[in-house]
Amino acid sequence: MATKKKKKKKTKGTKPAAKAGTARKPARASRGRATKVSAKKAKANKASAAKKTSSKMVPVKKKGAATKKPRVQIMNHPVFGRVTVDPGAGVYWQKTLRLADRDVAVDMTIEDPAAATPELLDRAAQLVARLSHFDGLARAGLRHSYDEDSDSAVALYVTHHLEELSAETLMGIFDKPKESIVVDDVMARLFLKRVGSYPSKGGGSATFDYAISPDTSQYILAVQLDESGGVLGIEMES
Q: 221 or 37: which carries more pLDDT confidence?
């Protein structure tokens, strides 16, 4: 009879033993290299994330740190009195003055608030203090313009009113018949309605508005003078 060989039972999960003389690779070393590689990747990812975050960072304003707005300044002047200098609008001053038994509206505008200095106000005050003098210079400029140029704004103003206004209206203004009215009568009748002063560092100007009557005409003659009283221009306006 043949002898049956016994089968060896394999044990599940059991690895074959290493041959004699064969050294096993230490598991710790492989785990150490893997740990180093993963640490480097984590460090690189962290640096990349930090760069992205820093590039998107926006400075945050502290609470209560509001931007200070320039303050309104108040100046006291011997001629203009209390003058308000607005950092956004400059200076606007107005007052009604008496000249030749009539009220004249006088206003002053300084657009640049930085230019509103005591020295500039002193220069502008000459116009107010010597209003009668500058009025005479403006009137002389009107007459000179009429005499020198028949097509000037002054000539047009005179002709327009003598032709367009009725005899009754002209009688009420000049107290004489229409056919008797001459240019001298018109010049004498013109009254100063308003003065606008515009002082500036580079040399200011002023505009004198004249009208033949406060009620019968919408047209005026605007005479522009420089600081010394020289005529810069004359326009007919409405």
A: 221
